[in-house]
Amino acid sequence: MQYFIQQLINGLTLGSLYGLIAIGYTMVYGIVGMINFAHGDIFMVGAFIALIVFLILAALFYSVPVVVALLVMMIVAMLFTALYNWVIEKVAYRPLRGSFRLAPLITAIGMSITLSNFVQVTQGPRNKPIPPMISEVYNIYGVSISLKQIVIFVVTAVLLAIFSYLVNKTSLGRAQRACEQDQKMAALLGIDVDRTISITFIIGAALAAVAGTLFLMYYGVVVFSDGFVPGVKAFTAAVLGGIGSIPGAVIGGLLIGLIESLWSAYFSIDYKDVAAFSILAIVLIFLPSGILGRPEVEKV
Amino acid sequence: MDTNAPMNKALLKLEHLSMKFGGLVAIGDLSFEARRGEITALIGPNGAGKTTVFNCITGFYKPTEGMIRFTGKDGEEFLLERMPDFQITAKAKVARTFQNIRLFSGMTVLENLLVAQHNKLMKASGYTILGLLGIGGYRAASAQAIEQAKYWLEKAELTDRADDPAGDLPYGAQRRLEIARAMCTGPELLCLDEPAAGLNPRESLALNTLLNDIKANTGTSILLIEHDMSVVMEISDHIVVLEYGRKISDGDPESVRTDPRVIAAYLGVDDEEVEDVLTEVGDEEIIEDLDAGPDPEHGPAASASMLAGSVSETVEHRDDERVTVSKGASKAAQVEARAAKAASGRTGIAKASTDKASSAKAKGKKADKPAARAVRPAAKATTSATSASKGVSNRLAAPRGNRPDDLTLIKGIGKINEKKLNEHGIFHFDQIAEWKKIDVEAAESYLAFDGRIAREEWVKQARQLGKGKTAKPTTDKQRGGTKS
Amino acid sequence: MTTTVSTERGSVAAPVKRAFREALYAGLISFGMFVLIVGLKTDQNIRNELVLEPRWGLLAIVVALTMFGRFAYVAWLQPFMARQKLADTVTGLMPASVTSRFFRLPYFIAALVIMVALYVVSGSLDGWLGAELAGYARFLRALALIYALASVFYYYRAFIHDHFSALGITVMIVYPVFVVLTLALLTGSMAGGFQGSLKWVDNFGIQILIYVMLAWGLNIVVGLAGLLDLGYVAFYAVGAYAYALLGTHYGLSFWILLPAAGCMAAFWGIILGFPVLRLRGDYLAIVTLAFGEIIRMVLINWRVVTNGSAGISGIPKVSFFGLISFDVSAPNYISKVFDIAQSGAYYKIFLYYLILALALLTAFVTVRLRRMPVGRAWEALREDEIACRSLGINTTTTKLTAFATGAMFGGFAGSFFAARQGFVSPESFVFLESAIILAIVVLGGMGSLVGIAVAAAVMIGGTEILRELDFLKVVFGPDFTPELYRMLLFGVAMVVVMVWKPRGFVSNREPTAFLKERKAVSGSFTKEGHG
Q1: Do C283 and A243 touch (CB under 8 A)?
Q2: C285 contacts in chain A (CB < 8 Å)
Q3: SS3 sequence of chain B
Q4: Chain segment C85-97, per-residue pLDDT in tens
């Protein structure tokens, strides 16, 4: 039983990271209808920026309290990653808006390749390890939960709270939902569609950057190719939860994290990804729009 | 199957078709017949459910209840509500066009027509294998298909644009192309969804010619939805009129054109008559109120479906919700009711009204119910033409036996109103109970009661009090809250 | 983005002030983007800890380049392009196009002269100029050669445009012969010719043709039927592993295994397709992606059968219908049969013609199928699925046949790949491959065989050529490995081309039946399909 709870906690930790990235996927899909393949690499860029900030702090200051360090890393990563995503949207996606649906998809794939190779070329292809930031582990009734995991849960929860407030209660969120439903009409009603879409990308990137920082803190090492696998898993999570639905993205992320963790604990670690993808396929066969997705009904 | 009926007459028979989306009844118990060799038109105001009927016939929706029987020209019978959409076209030979044109805009006009002949060509090419190898009759079949396409191009006057992309055509030409494409599938029934929408009068005329041509020369029958009356009246042999998902008229163009129900559905009725006729209509609240079923003459026919009950039972309700046609909405029904009223006369219905009146209901639950008056045997010619300005007709000079009734027992009549009524010559319950509509109007305008008589049901209350009965609370169905 | 137009003159004024502002803005943004990732490098010091190394110089160069680029774009390029669209007020003529001004006879002659001259003295260049300048000189010579060729193409462009397919096929057939002969000429012997051709025929010719065939196969699924398949590499892998396993265990000939592998792949296409084809658009995309990854992971982990990451090696070479072998030790080795010098190039040339034949088979089948009712049904499916169903077409079986046919060709390509490499491993079947194949299909223009072939040649050939740019070492220093930048440039090129031509190189569609004349259907009418 304790083992099970242990795996549960591990799975939820992983799932929180996936969920944060998945929200970016689902928001962008909801508002512009494109699958942003570069999002996984944005997450990786965020992790790298956090890494560099960490090294700067380590070089400049003798010792920095962990909380402060984490906060600074997160904020700086959010800022810079948001800048990246904003530029990418403006340069690569906006000119293709409204046209052919496959064109932005290919552009996104191209962007993904560009980003990961850009980091590889500028930072080198090797693993980048950092000394562990947090090492305390608590033992509750035989279940060990590390402080790192608690940090991840807390940060994710806080961010999700802020984020859902933003989406549901502010005028920005309203503008976003309007643009999701009908872009032309939103524009006619005076909503600045370009700005709303840019802000969507920025928020998605910020969340991915936080996920990147937490990823760096949790695993202690990052490499340029780390964008692909979490990206695909987060995308899977977004689709599983119903793409376009933000709560769905979070639920999907947690589910994927749990499946991975439990499968590798109880069956085999080799096939954990196979399990996650297979469950996605099975769910989609029975629920073609994902768990919380809105089925698209075509009017005849 | 009725073997006595001529085999080549009935083509499409809808029996008690119902389509419900959650609580919304899009089609309620619809039955009609489209006959072979005829052009049948389905008309009705917007929202009547016409395209929903089409979607049920052609398999895009699965109807909640009912049967759609299709009889092919060899006598083969199909139950369309059970078949998947593509098989309805492939096997039963029912083709359709769409309200929003759905062409293959990236393919040329000719290619569009060739795609329509897909199944025929697939067989000829041996499901592609033989055709790929160059053997078999594919070449001949392909040439024949192009000939068929050319024939329809000519009919639709599109020959000169055969090699242009379909998306490049002007709107009228696109409509014609859609019809031509549907005809290339070799259908026995062609369902057209608003073929004349967006066409100017000259184009509508051309459409009429085309449809008559199809009817005369190809043995294809046509079922069409249309709003353009010049098309409908010109070419239809048989018209079915829908309103709010129910059939209100069915017959040849002349009779439908002059049917007052149809006129009312399209043009509306006078406001005064609205509240008068709700019981005959089968308005739910009144039915419950009076604890009686709807008037069978104006309700639906006995349903073959095992699940059917009275109209009210076919509509699902949540606890706090009542889904009905809004009051006064079904204009056709009102006209019907009015006509029926005129025809039936006093006695038959008066008896009914006494029965209804004797089952009393608690007043409090119907605070703002609209005119839930019992049926008034309104003699159409009200000879005693008491004009409103002269006041109520049955006024008395003084209370009988000098003992006026305590009119304040009627909810809604307080001291002041009682005084007013007394001044006007109304002292007893039975006077109020006898009030006819004209009297009510007079009282309202003369005494400035402003609709309260109807709203608060003074007449009914007076009747009850006059008989010395007290109000009995209702014991059956749970009533919803106040309904606006 | 507007340009300022001066009303007095027929030309457009250079908006220098605006250019400065935009350049500054661009500089700020690029500084923000690059300051951390380019300006600071994470490196490991002697104690294996990560430290940061500043590279302010590089950062400065990058930012400066961005600023200059933006300035040039706004101040010169944009007004220039606007001017190109304005007719001269006096003559009413449009200005001469860029290409016509670029390719002019005097330049052509000059290029030829430079080229020939430098070839003649190439041997002694090193001696005269020293290694570095000699490198520049060779670079110049290469540029002159390219310019001359381009001028020739430009001059005959009308002819080329009209007969593009025929010319293309001729070029493809003649290519190895041409390469061998040219290199023989350069090196002075046939043996040298064969040896040098190895790289050109194998890395370029065969590689490009494999991708062409894969893209033509995916074209049936994505381009014709409009089903977004992101896991096409799965069928490629199935074909390759089927061939590898059957070949190593049962030793059957290529000619039996090829159809077998194709059937396996088609079978998997139907199995995979059946449950997922009811999904629409992007959901179909992610599920196919998932399947691609599942197959790859099964290949990695099912060590018993597939030997895991180590892969399967020792796949026998293909022989010419059993008559002539390319195995050096075999008795009917080609050298012994024809009594010619031994060379590894023979096998490569044989393989080249083999893949060419397979690719042309794919193209032939695609063209024929488009004329068949099933091909028309695929295209109609892409345009409007509901209309298809209303015409009596069973869309589920139609989608399945598209999927299975595409899978079959993928399987053929996979078995060829296994035969050519002699070795298969799961590393060759990553998602990136599916993405590249899809990009080729979209860049070429969905449904257009010619466009796709050109796109494959440009993209794959382009990245392979980057390996050849050794002379750039002279320019950028000996540490410069263009290899590294290969994928980066590939990604950038993908983005640039898609933004420039969203519908691909060839956006027209050729109709398959016509009454009077065959008119190409513009890309603005064709739909892209929703799966």
Answers
A1: yes
A2: 35
A3: CCCCCCCCCEEEEEEEEEEEECCEEEEEEEEEEEECCCEEEEECCCCCCHHHHHHHHCCCCCCCEEEEEEECCCCCEEEHHHCCHHHHHHCCCEEECCCCCCCCCCCEHHHHHHHHCHHHHHHHCCCCHHHHHCCCCHHHHHHHHHHHHHHHHHHCCCHHHCCCEHHHCCHHHHHHHHHHHHHCCCCCEEEEECCCCCCCHHHHHHHHHHHHHHHHHHCCEEEEECCCHHHHHHHCCEEEEEECCEEEEEECHHHHHHCHHHHHHHHCCCCCCCHHHHHHHCCHHHHHHCCCCCCHHHCCCCCCCCCCCCHHHHCCCCCCCCCCCCCCCCHHHHHHHHHHHHHHCHHHHHHHHHHHHHCCCCCHHHCCCCCCCCCCCCCCCCCCCCCHHHCCCCCCCCCHHHCCCCHHHCCCCCHHHHHHHHHHCCCCHHHHHCCCHHHHHHHHHHHCCCCHHHHHCHHHHHHHHHCCCCCCCCCCCCCCCCCC
A4: 777 777 777 777 7
What phi-psi label fits residue B470: left (phi over 0), alpha (psi between -120 and 50 degrees) or beta? beta
Which segment of A54-58, C286-290, C331-335 scores lowest on mean pLDDT?
A: C331-335
Q: Is the dihedral of CA C134, C138, C141, C143 positive or negative?
A: negative
Average pLDDT score over chain A: 88
The answer, yes or no, to whether residue B318 has pLDDT greater than 60, is: no
* DSSP secondary structure, A230-291, as one string: HHHHHHHHHHHH-TT-HHHHHHHHHHHHHHHHHHHHHS-STTHHHHHHHHHHHHHHHSTT-S
Q: What is the pLDDT of residues B35-54, one digit of tens each?
A: 988 999 999 888 888 889 99
Indicate the fold that domain B10-261 takes in CATH.
Rossmann fold (3.40.50)
Question: In chain C, which residues have their Cβ closer than 8 Å to the Cβ of B167?
Answer: 524-525
Give burial (CB, 10 Å; 0-12/13-18/19+) of B365: middle
Asked if residues A40 and A230 have their Cβ atoms less than 8 Å apart, the reply is yes
Of B85, B110, B122, the CB nearest to C513: B110
**pLDDT tens digits, one per residue of C408-426:** 999 999 999 998 888 899 9
**Considering chain B, what is the average pLDDT of its residues?**
74
Per-residue pLDDT, B482: 40
Identify all chain A residues contacting B60, using CB atoms and an 8 Å cutoff: 300
Give the residue-averaged pLDDT of C28-52: 85
Question: Looking at chain A from residue 261 to 300, which residues have their Cβ under 8 Å from any Cβ of chain B?
Answer: 300
Nearest Cα residue to C398 out of B86, A122, B3: B86
* Residue B379 pLDDT greater than 60, yes or no: no
Over pLDDT 90: what percentage of chain B? 22
With CA atoms as reference, the chain A residue closest to C526 would be A100
Which has more confidence, B271 or C457?
A: C457
Domain spans in chain A, listed from the N-terminal domain onward: 13-224
| Short-list A11, A12, A35, CA closest to A25 | A35
Evaluate whether C451 touches C444 at the Cβ level (below 8 Å).
yes
Residue C132 pLDDT exceeds 80? no
Q: Which two tokens stand for residue B433?
A: 């109970």
Task: Tell me what pLDDT residue C13 has.
Answer: 59
- The domain segmentation of chain B, as residue ranges, is 10-261, 275-302+327-466
ipTM confidence score: 0.88
Nearest to A100 among C278, C432, C503 (CB): C503
- For residue C50, what is the enclosing H or E element? strand C50-54
Of B71-80, B432-441, C445-454, least confident by mean pLDDT is B432-441
Residue C273: what pLDDT? 87
Most confident of the ranges B478-482, C377-381, C470-474: C377-381
- CB distance A35 to A235 below 8 Å: yes
